[in-house]
Design goal:
The chain is mostly helical. The chain folds into 2 domains: 2-70, no CATH class; 88-118, no CATH class. The chain is 50% helix and 8% strand. It is built from 5 helices and 4 strands, in the order αααββαββα. The protein is elongated, with a radius of gyration of 21 Å.
């Protein structure tokens, strides 16, 4: 979700990816300096703005525009789902419409079961 929001911010500021990465690197370098002084941190290297914004084999993309060193949860594998709600009339109408040989309500129920099993 955060990469989606960050790309919206980048677009609203008319920044190319490289320039936005430099700006985020400068912002997060200050936080890296704080982490450097914290004995409980998992990343105490005090990364520079340039290092944070440089994508390479050790700092690979996690979710554009975030490389590994800009992610708070670098050591955790995560999955997510976005759930939406629809009005009762919309749901009734959706259940009555066909998608291939299935009703859309059946497709929705399958996708919900699949999403729950993935997360």
């Amino acid at each position: 979700m955060y990469p989606l929001i960050e790309n919206a911010i980048r677009g609203a500021r008319s920044r190319p990816v490289a320039r936005h990465m430099q700006a985020m690197g400068r912002l997060l370098a200050g936080l890296a300096q704080v982490a450097e002084r914290n004995p409980l941190t998992t990343r105490g290297a005090g990364y520079s703005a340039e290092r944070l914004a440089t994508v390479d084999h050790e700092n690979r993309w996690i979710g554009l525009p975030y490389p590994r060193l800009m992610n708070a949860n670098a050591f955790i594998d995560q999955a997510a789902i976005i759930m939406t709600s629809v009005g009762e009339n919309d749901l009734r109408r959706a259940r009555s419409q066909k998608v291939g040989n299935l009703l859309t309500g059946e497709v929705h129920a399958f996708s919900c079961r699949l999403a729950v099993s993935v997360t």
